[in-house]
Design brief:
- It contains eight helices and five strands.
- It is of the alpha/beta class and 197 residues long.
- Strand 1, helix 1 and strand 2 form a beta-alpha-beta unit.
- The chain is elongated, with a radius of gyration of 28 Å.
Length: 197
């Protein structure tokens, strides 16, 4: 059984000494680090190297949970993946140790809280979107062209013989987008068949 440590600081000006001392004090002889990398980014060179080295029976120890990552949901996902591989996890500051029954209980409580928080955020987002729709606000990306612009472009294309490319430049959209929008309108005139091909 091997005890690996992981330490991280967000900026190169910060110092790893406190974390390294704490990790070595609990028997982490091999500590991998990342410096100047945000905790929101889970693709870090030191962490990636460490995750590849971990085997069944090993322990990954951090000084504090936020050193492994800032997103509670992603942290829990990572620790669950470690658990599936038979790797234990310890966070010294929060006294979490998935190798003990108390530590597993605390971790599962954190996981339940994270799931609850995500569902609350999702509910608030849906409620906010419903309220915005009720007020008549546009949800999502603004349409590339208004119905009036589509009608103008269709008329210019069919009646005046303006090319799709020129019209697309005029409305700052791709010719294929313009063609698909014009295809949806009721077409009359000699050039309507050009939009079908």
């Amino acid at each position: 059984m091997r005890n690996f440590g992981y330490a991280r600081v967000s900026t190169v000006e910060q110092n790893l000494d406190l974390q390294l001392s704490a990790l070595r004090a609990v028997g982490c002889h091999d500590v991998l680090t990342d410096e100047g990398i945000s905790g929101s980014d889970f693709t870090r060179p030191g962490l990636s190297k460490l995750l590849k080295r971990l085997r069944t029976g090993d322990t990954l120890t951090v000084w504090r949970l936020d050193r492994l990552g800032r997103s509670l949901f992603n942290l829990i996902k990572l620790v669950r993946e470690l658990e599936d591989r038979g790797v234990q996890f310890r966070s010294l500051s929060e006294s979490i140790d998935t190798g003990t029954s108390g530590g597993r209980l605390l971790f599962h409580l954190l996981a339940a809280m994270a799931e609850f928080e995500r569902s609350l955020v999702s509910e608030r987002t849906r409620a906010g979107m419903a309220a915005a729709r009720a007020r008549g606000s546009q949800i999502g990306r603004k349409p590339a062209m208004s119905p009036e612009q589509i009608a103008e472009a269709t008329s210019a294309f069919i009646d005046d013989g303006v090319s799709l490319e020129d019209l697309a430049k005029q409305y700052s959209i791709h010719p294929r987008t313009l063609k698909s929008k014009m295809r949806l309108t009721s077409l009359v005139g000699d050039r309507s068949s050009d939009l079908i091909g």
